[in-house]
Fold:
Amino acid sequence: MASETYDLVVIGGGPAGYAAAIRAGQLGKKVACVEYERAGGTCLNWGCIPSKALLKAAEIVSHIREAKSFGIAVGEPEVDFAKVMGRSRNVADQMAKGIEFLFRKNKVEYFVGRARVTVPGIVEIVEGRDKGTFFKTDRTMIATGCKARRLPGLKVDGKHVMTSREALAMKVQPKSIAIIGAGAIGVEFAYFLNTLGTKTTLIEMLDRIVPVEDEEISEALHRAFKKQGIDVRPKTKVENIKVGKDSVKLDLVKGDKRENLEVETVLLSIGVEANTEGLLSPRVRLDMDRGYIKVNDRYESSIPGIFAAGDIIGPPWLAHVATYEAVQAVNGMFGVAKPKRVTTYPGCTYCNPQIASVGLTEVKAKENGIKYKVGRFPFSASGKAVAINQPNGFVKLILDAHHGELLGAHIIGENATELIGEYVLAEKAELTGEDIHSTIHAHPTMSEALMEAAASAYDEAIHI
Amino acid sequence: MASETYDLVVIGGGPAGYAAAIRAGQLGKKVACVEYERAGGTCLNWGCIPSKALLKAAEIVSHIREAKSFGIAVGEPEVDFAKVMGRSRNVADQMAKGIEFLFRKNKVEYFVGRARVTVPGIVEIVEGRDKGTFFKTDRTMIATGCKARRLPGLKVDGKHVMTSREALAMKVQPKSIAIIGAGAIGVEFAYFLNTLGTKTTLIEMLDRIVPVEDEEISEALHRAFKKQGIDVRPKTKVENIKVGKDSVKLDLVKGDKRENLEVETVLLSIGVEANTEGLLSPRVRLDMDRGYIKVNDRYESSIPGIFAAGDIIGPPWLAHVATYEAVQAVNGMFGVAKPKRVTTYPGCTYCNPQIASVGLTEVKAKENGIKYKVGRFPFSASGKAVAINQPNGFVKLILDAHHGELLGAHIIGENATELIGEYVLAEKAELTGEDIHSTIHAHPTMSEALMEAAASAYDEAIHI
Structure:
């Protein structure tokens, strides 16, 4: 197939890449997808999916521990850490096979190796299993995503120093860990490891953990984590990291206070950076913005015919946003539909309590000078939440003060990551608080809180 | 307060009654609520809420049993049945106190006893704690709800023969049970008791269990229940029920086959009937329809000033519908807003797997001669479902063939009862499959299946 011309060559097999390839396949296009490692990319193999398997295991441990309060006697759970991790790897493997199946089903030609755009219209595999493969293509989609950021001078050895990637392949549970960075990945690992018995210190340079979330959400998670026994350290910098034979020593610096910490392992969860190394030959010069590929409203880069979608075009670095962008880009490049850029999307954090949000935080609404009103509902007033012993957390809504459009929504508590879907649809469809309030929600469910939070903005909530 | 005139007297303190009273209180009205038993009514004391506490206990037992597959070793759970039931009663008690608190907060005067409408504008308490209390009122709201139907000639003794009410107060777990009627209540008890080790026979006269749901949902639940070890008997009538000293004997009749069954206990879950006994003096003659109070679009009965809402005005006998109706009625009677009648509402069944639906089943769409298309997505193709070991079940959508409006949605599987909320909002707001498909859903969540089911109707689902 050396000199065949493809309709589309996709570089990267993650949530943007595989979705682009499958969508092009659905449209009957001749499409190849080149993935360096395994179909599914980071999300499926080293991110979203395997981490959810781990978090579920931690949740089961929590459930077993609280069984007594339901009248169920059971011994203390014994966690076989290697098995927990092994199941997570199996889940990732199963899902990766699923993507490979979808490739065959949609006639996507799948290649393994590191691809390079040699000149516009030519892609070569320069490393890996299918090295030497050469594609002529009318369209190229770059979807190589991001990788975990590292600290300069600190070697990631997979034992004492890890990123999320190595952490998802741990064989032995660390006795203690310092997690540097309290965004979604940091707090998910903090919940998981702490629940399984690792002494966990969670360190965040900014004012509060999960700093992109609404302030009240950060406060609530901070309280919950402290109660769970996690040592939560906001406003704290890490200095002098020294990796020894059996442990890592580091300094925690908060204002003018300095404290020593010694842990078995350090996890770096300090953000991501673009995977562009070796991607473009020197002849291919794309406009970039802080390391990310700049694209127009059709997801096309500064060179016609070279498209990009997903993490490689910059924040918010979310799998579901990546998939959406990729499908839009493909619809656009083949003239199926006018591609849309992303406006409304949810963000989810799967620690316990779960966090989910969409749209503006209250602080952002204020900064933007928007007149808003707030609706709230605590799960302690929800019959379902009390019945299932999950009365912690709340729903907070930001509504436009004049017309009541949903501007932002923030949920912390059981099932938050599933509940947010309704609000995302509402915000996307430009519905109002009144639309949500006047929709009958099933009783008894946690989702009633979504309705009552909307009602509360008009002082019409029945249950508070 | 014998001869004061009230703005509103509400008879019944369940989801319709307490909501009506609280809403009137919010509006600053002088309102009384008369409840025969306890604030919260059947739903909160003997229905939705305590049953969810029981079902959660069963779920925890299931979780413990499947812990091993996650790499967590733990002994077989020992269920203290009395404690499980006791917790359920405590939850009901706590929620009832919550309603009493809301009454005080909203200045609702709360009375306990059996109320009777003596003449229009006069309500008396004729039995119970506050017997003899006499209300002059401009408006009366009847919200006395329903009670479980019984079989003629079969005495409910709370030991060998129960309705859901007695079943929620069981002290001892029956070794075997025949559940007559496989609607929501029947299947919820079947799941709960079978999981805890009761030999369970589930009997349904109609063609299939959960007969109001989509046919495919009934089939899926039937399969799941059989796998759980429940003896599922559709198309089966019960005859010759004979209550002995230690057991109940009955005949199961299917077509021309007759089979004997001997069980410790029979649970009747064969529907409900209106609570109207003693409610109206002979001078107050309301138009009725098959035992239910007929109301107009303002929830007003055939006698001006007498309103009714909730189960007492007939199907669908759902708490959330009752609350909605009551609030609408109160808004209308005090001129706050034009009351709306119920059009779109979810139905939920909290067995495992859970079931949730809204709008038309496929059969109904066919019967109505509607041109529709079907969207589907199996949870086995959902990364989140696989990661949390809940790959069973599916989403099925009925969309209008021309414009794509959502006409019906059916979900069976983990979390179905929370997931349905998004579809209810979509149907209520007259959104289309395309609106749902083009809304970014968080990855990885079960709610992605809602989007993919919509996409599949247009052959654009990525993951199947």
Observations:
- The CA atoms of residues 131 and 283 of chain A lie 20 Å apart.
- Chain A is about 30% helix and 25% strand.
